[in-house]
Amino acid sequence: MMGMVAVCAALSLRHGGGLEPLKAAASQAAAAPTNSLEILEVRPSFFVIAGAGANIGVQVGEDGVVAVDAGPADGAPAVLAAIKRISPKPIRYVIDTGPDIDHVGGNEALSKAGEKFFSGSTLGGGAVDTFAPIISAEGVLRHMAKSPSGGWPTEVFNYSRKYMYLNGEAIEVLRQAAAHTDSDVFAFFRRSDVVVAGDVLDTRQFPVIDVERGGSIQGEIAALNRLVELAVPSVPVVTREAGTIVVPGHGRLCDQYDVVEYRDMVTIIRDRVRDLIKAGRSLAEIKAAQPAKGYMGRYGNPGGAWTTDRFIEAVYRSLTKEKS
Ligand SMILES: [Zn+2]
Predict the structure, then answer these.
(1) Cα 21 to ligand 1 centre (Å)
(2) Where would I find the H helices in the chain?
(3) Residue 140 CA to ligand 1 centre (angstroms)
(4) How far does the centroid of ligand 1 lie from the alpha carbon of residue 55, in Å?
(5) Of all helices (H) and strands (E), which one includes residue 60?
(6) pLDDT by residue (tens digit) across 153-172?
(7) Residue pLDDT, tens place only, 180-204
(8) d(C-alpha 129, C-alpha 115), whole Å
(9) Which of 152, 232, 248, 293 is packed most tightly, with the most Cβ within 10 A?
(10) What is the pTM for the complete model shown?
(11) What separation in Å is there between the alpha carbon of 249 and the centre of ligand 1?
């Protein structure tokens, strides 16, 4: 479909001429351990760092850098070096899309490398806040209670939308209730027309529904529907290869059509599991009936941390939890 072309075009920038300034900067930063990371220029003031464990969104401009997700702790030096290649300005905010360690592990390093907007230095008095605030849904702080306090979010919220206006554009941090976990947000950059979706969208596999930490299949589908509503495809002039770019927590960049497809896949599997529950089947019988049939080749993992069986179990558990 034509919408996919836009994504390919954005991805191909890293091989084409779109990153000339970065190439020039690269020689200066040659010693920095960025080798394993890819920097994608998806919009003039918006970049995605891939390969750090989770996708990281980087908005840049006059005001500084806004980073969405920090990657895992051990990848932080490489991520910081990559951010420096994109912009010499200080990191002003870190936004966490969720509580997973591969998204928040680098919080402390990124925050400490940053500088709060309107710190003492810019106001000409008082102590300088030599850190960037970390924004997240309230639950992230709760889930990080056992990890070192330096990486804890400093500005948490539990309402539906937090907003800022930085680098010449509106930034909306939109909370999604009970989806991947109980503390997921999307970061929507309105002028760049980029949404960083976090683990609600994972193009490598079935979405991780962390029931233990408040995730649910219904909230996951609601969040995917929200993404579909936020994103606009390149219509009616599909050849323009424009449209909203959706950055998943893991995997390749998406457009609205990709999110629709993913949402439909998740919804179909939810419906199949629900029908089997209604027919009185046990969890073991439901797994045996293969409700993910038709999608396992593309999204299923036979082994590893998030198997197809674990996904089906999470769908089952959130649906039966709902009833009781
Ligand atoms: Zn993740």
Answers:
(1) 30
(2) 2-12, 20-28, 76-86, 101-104, 107-113, 120-123, 138-143, 217-230, 256-278, 283-288, 296-299, 308-323
(3) 13
(4) 8
(5) strand 56-61
(6) 999 999 999 999 999 999 99
(7) 999 999 999 999 999 999 999 999 9
(8) 6
(9) 248
(10) 0.87
(11) 5
